[in-house]
Hints:
Layout: E1 2-4, E2 7-9, H1 15-18, H2 27-36, H3 50-63, H4 67-84, H5 87-94, H6 108-111
Antiparallel strand pairs: 1-2
Helix pairs in contact: 4-5
Family: Belongs to the universal ribosomal protein uS13 family.
Keywords: Ribonucleoprotein, Ribosomal protein, RNA-binding, rRNA-binding, tRNA-binding
InterPro entries: Rbsml_uS13_C, Ribosomal_uS13, Ribosomal_uS13-like_H2TH, Ribosomal_uS13_bac-type, Ribosomal_uS13_CS
Amino acid sequence: xxxxxxxxxxxxxxxxxxxxxxxxxxxxxxxxxxxxxxxxxxxxxxxxxxxxxxxxxxxxxxxxxxxxxxxxxxxxxxxxxxxxxxxxxxxxxxxxxxxxxxxxxxxxxxxxxxxxxxxxxxxxx
Length: 125
């Protein structure tokens, strides 16, 4: 099992796909890593030599911000917005959509499970 940037990447998948399991590496970065190290796109992680794994590890440590460092940076950016009390920060603080989505309907992912509100009682005469 290959361990890169503190993440156990799957051994039976292609290298390009397995690298995406690392937070901060998406399709483009994974492809760039494989091309810069001249690793074949159809090669599986379990077919990599120890030397190739070491090269991947060193390249990621040197050129990319991943995992803990990236998570910390994103959290600090959000905290900065909240401390400034700008509109985006207030939306983060209230747990509402930040990027202009509607909230009258939808937005259940951010707002949580719907809570029923009691309506007016009908008066019968």
